Amino acid sequence: AALGYAGPGKPVSAAFLPEAPEETGREGPLWRVDFDDRERTSFYLSPETGEVLTRRSEMWRFFDLLWRLHVMDWDDGEDFNHPLIIVTAAVSTIVVLSGFVLLWFRLRPTRRGRRVGDKG
Fold first, then answer.
1. CA 86 from centre of chain
2. What pTM was computed for the model?
3. Residue 33 in contact with residue 14, Cβ under 8 Å?
4. Contact, 19 vs 29, CB < 8 A?
5. Where do the structural domains in the chain lie, given as residue ranges?
6. What is the mean pLDDT of residues 5-18?
7. Element (H, E) at 56
8. Which residues pair with 52 in a beta bridge?
9. 64 CB-side CA count, 13 A
10. Which of 67, 95, 94 minimizes the C-alpha distance to 82?
11. pLDDT tens, 27-58?
12. Strand, coil or helix: what is 107?
């Protein structure tokens, strides 16, 4: 893990995890190595090869939280077809189309040369 790390921190702990945490996006056992840097970086390594499979930091975890809020999928952040998004998109489309209809009524000329809504 120290060979794959380019920051100022040093490895402070290593733990064997029989099941991969959700944040890794992997399955099966992994080694987790934590560093003492500002970002609280963690590397997840393959127990067979020692290869760094996933890197995670506090910035990534914060981004992941915002992503889950954005796609409204609080389980794993992978499914962006949440019913709330579909309803929001449908309502937004209706609002935009009604805006175009109202704009058309507002800007269309009348027979007397005045626009609808003009005073005088």
1. 17
2. 0.60
3. yes
4. yes
5. 11-71, 81-120
6. 85
7. strand 52-56
8. 45
9. 15
10. 67
11. 889 999 999 888 888 999 888 888 888 888 88
12. helix
